[in-house]
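dumping this here so i dont lose it again. seq + smiles for zinc ion
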Amino acid sequence: MSKHICREKECEEELEELLKTFEEIEVIASSLQALVKVELSGYPIISNVSNMEELISAAKQELERRGIEVEGVSKEAIVRGEAEGTGGLLSLVIRRALYKKVKGSLPPDAPASPCPVCGLYPIAGVLKRVKGAIFSMDVVELHCLCGYSATIEQFHCPVCGNRDKQAFDLYVAGDVTYRACMRCGHVIGIAKEGVEGERLPIAIAYEISRFA
Ligand SMILES: [Zn+2]
Ligand SMILES: [Zn+2]
C-alpha cells in the first residue's frame, strides 16, 4: 500500500507502522461487533447505537491492553468523527465494529455520501471502469474508514455535489490523484484501478495530514 501512496522513505516507514496498527484495530473491531446494539432506523446508523458508552469503554480497554492510551474522548466526538490523536484510533475501532455488525442488513439504495453507516464524508476512492450497454465509463468506488463502499460518478464532489470537471484542483502523488473541490474545499484521494480499497482510506488520511 505505501508504494502507491508515498514518494519518500520516511513516508513509507511511517505508513507501514500505521497499517500495522490498523491490523490490530481490525482484530479489536471483529471482537467488538457482537457487542454493538443498534437499530437501522435512519442515517447515519452510528447515531442509533444505544450502548455507545459501553462500546467506548470496551474499545478503550482493548487499545490499552496493546499499549495505546486514550484519554478525554467524548461520546459526541466519537459519533461525529471529530476525535483526535489516539481518540481517532478509538473512533476507527468503533466505526469498523459497527460496519461489520450492519453490513449484511444495509438496504441496496443506501446513499453514497455522507456514509450511511458512520456519517463521515468520503476521502478515498478507487477509479473503476464499468461496462455499460454501449459505452464504458469511469466511476469512483468510494471507501469509507468504517469499511462501507459505494460508487459515484467520476467527477462528483461527495460533499457539495459539484459535477463541474473544471471546478476541481488536481494534485498527483504516487498512484493517487488528490482532487480538491473548488466550491467546498473537500479533498478526496482517488487511486488507480487495481489498488486495494480496504486500507486505502487509512493511507489517504495519513497522506492528507502530511500536506495539510
Ligand atoms: Zn463510514
Ligand atoms: Zn465540493
